[in-house]
Amino acid sequence: MRPAIIFGTRPEIIKLSPVIRAFLERDIQPILIHTGQHYDYEMSQVFLEELELPEIDYHLEVGSGTQAEQTGIAMIKIEKVLMNEQPDVSIVQGDTNTVLAGALASVKLLIPVAHVEAGLRSHDRTMPEEINRILADHASEVLFAPTLEAKENLEREGIRRNVYVVGNTIVDAVLQNSEIAEKKSRILEELGLSPKEYILVTAHRKENVDNKDRLTKLVDILLSLPITVVYPVHPRAEERLKEYGLWHKLKTAPHIILTKPLGYLDFLKLEKNARIIMTDSGGIQEEAIILGVPCLTLRYNTERPETIKAGGNILVGVEKDLALRYVMKLLEDEKFYQRMASAKNPFGDGRAGERIVNILITLWEEGNLRVPS
Ligand code: UD1
Ligand code: UDP
Fold it and tell me: Which residues does the chain have with pLDDT short of 50?
């Protein structure tokens, strides 16, 4: 069997690493195609190194651009590789422009698409990710839903065939790396932090950072927090913070530490030891509940409602009063804190990568890994 794995951003590298590992354990060398949607060392290469992934077969160097430019250029470049390689299946993960480009280029060449993390829905069609998810799911032959809720979302849209609930590969990635992070990372010492005495923040979503009003409100929340804040800044957020004149305010606030985007081991260590996580990231909402750290999500909706239902995550948007009320409650009310921290991880047992690979191999052996006519 010759699978192609198509990825291009930080979260895709992290969440596909368990799938790549599982293929290698079955003596299958997947063709690795990196679109180059993310290209800075700390957004890409650091993860390839830390997660000890094999050599990338194709670096497509797509880079940044408008939604259509990025997706279109990625499609053209991916198509060339697929025509040349003719893999048995293209595997994509998540909801980025790379995913949409990979899924469309593949299915039109009659190469079946397997979508990892299928069925997530925020029901917010203004998000580029929501459009990417929906289209990628509908272009896919095999859909790996992380939870039953995700499977039900697919059913509601009429997708019933070849849907498998396997858990989320982020659990595999966290379990495979958190002990290594604990041993290897010196990030707490480097930043002068004590465990459970800081809030870890990330914010990079287009709807938060590309909107001056939203970003100003978000910064105002961070400036008002009564405890040390660590914020590893995504390049998109850094550009906007500087453009809107907000960077200096954060940089000079005595309780705020801004860093470059961090490698996975340092970031996992920071997550695990944080008192609270505040984020608009999808993957970090998942990691927070896996690691037992209360999460306040800086958004008005989430495609990870399981985390809210389980009690580990609360949506606070960029509403200062609401956000501060929950931060204070978490800092002062130990019972409330413990209730959130002990929410049960809804994303599975850490064996999603192995399940995905077993299912794909079985479908291929049975002759069922194909685009039906
Ligand atoms: C993308 C995904 C988003 C995901 C995020 C993970 C889409 C539509 N969005 O958003 O779902 O959460 O990746 O981090 O695919 N930039 C750099 N260096 C880099 C990469 C980006 O400077 O290595 C800057 C560029 O100015 C670029 C901007 O960040 O224009 C946005 O990058 P892009 O990949 O388009 O979107 P993300 O915001 O990273
Ligand atoms: N991450 C990291 N370093 C950072 C910020 C995030 O290693 O400085 C990891 C994080 O642990 C998670 C993933 O990147 O696994 C999330 O990526 P991101 O927030 O960029 O994307 P999203 O999950 O929102 O698509």
Answer: none
Separation CA 336–CA 345 (nearest Å): 17
Based on the residue annotation, tell me whether 204 is a catalytic residue of this protein: yes
pLDDT on residue 131: 98
- Nearest alpha-carbon partner for 239 in 40, 78, 50: 40
How many angstroms separate the CA atoms of 64 and 182, rounded?
A: 34
**Best of 48, 96, 211 for a ligand 1 pocket test (most atoms within 8 Å of beta carbon):** 96
Domains identified in the chain and CATH numbers: 3-168+349-365 (3.40.50.2000), 183-341 (3.40.50.2000)
Note the ipTM here. 0.99
Q: What is the pLDDT of residue 56?
A: 98
pLDDT score for 142 = 98
Q: Is the CB of 132 under 6 A from ligand 2?
A: no
Ligand 2 midpoint to CA 29 (Å): 26
For the Cβ of 99 lying below 6 angstroms from any atom of ligand 2, the answer is no
- Cα(65) to ligand 1 centroid in Å equals 9
Residues 34, 38, 204, 234: which is the catalytic one?
204
Q: How far apart are CA 265 and CA 283, in angstroms?
A: 15
How many CB atoms within 10 Å of residue 138?
15
Q: DSSP H helical segments within 109-145, as ranges? A: 128-139
First to last CA, the chain: 21
**Spatial strand order in the sheet of 313-315:** 256-259, 228-232, 198-202, 276-279, 295-297, 313-315
Return d(Cα 50, Cα 52) in angstroms, integer: 5
Helix (H, G, I), strand (E, B) or coil at 258: strand
CA distance 177 to 167: 17
3-state secondary structure of 357: helix
Cα(38) to ligand 1 centroid in Å equals 6
